[in-house]
Write a structure and sequence with these properties.
By secondary structure, the protein is α/β, with parallel strands linked by helices. The chain is about 30% helix and about 20% strand. The chain is globular, with a radius of gyration of 21 Å.
Amino acid sequence: DFGFPYPQSGRQIEHARKMSRDIIIGNKYPQARHDFNWLIRKFKPPEFEDIWKAIEHKSQKGIIYFTDNQLKLSIAHKVQRQLKSIGLPIVSVSLKPMPHFGKNIHLSLQRGYETYFRQILAALEASTSEIIYFCEHDVLYHPSHFEFTPPDKTKFYYNQNWWKIRKDGFAVHWDADQVSGLVAYRDVLLDYYRAKVASFDKDSFDRKFEPASGEGSLSWKSEYPNLDIRHDHNLTYNKWSLDHFRKKDTAKNFIESTIDKISGWNIKTIDFM
């Protein structure tokens, strides 16, 4: 039987694997003559063409994560663990240092609408990914969310497959665009958020968070939903019935449920809230 001539811990092995993936797949070996994508293209068999296209798309994708660090830690940590499991590069922008979560940028700013937009812009400018998924600190993202690839580089795309979850397990959904479900190419996002920050006026802000929602955007639905966890520090208002909508026509396909009945998730209780 083969065995190491010295002690090995699972943590050390996983650290070595992570470092190897980072160096090889991340193209960080300084003496390499070609990058990792060249190697795959060179030696892939013809029947791997579809698989290769999927790999290429994934290599273009990245996550930006923004937080005010006021969220209950049990929720924040559950969301962060879920995002880490997706396997995409993460740029996090926080109001307190978070050195262990992706590439972290710490902004010494006070929580607010303008800060929110500045955090997003900082994350976009720091990311090197071509396709960006917006991920908020209080949303549990299903892996199927990241399978979508925007077909048009000039459009904003919103995943409308989501549920808002209350502490008692009650859940509601209606068809609407949310920043938490936004995915688009980095260039078009940079143009929008640079202009947003440059023109921001706290006295005239209309609480419009979603770029080009409606006429300049498209919607889609992932195979399984994301879970938007509602708590005491949400920037947006909670709406739990049709009575909470000033304009009833904006509550398109409004439905109610409970967390244990939502497909794609095996969550029976919400003790983490």
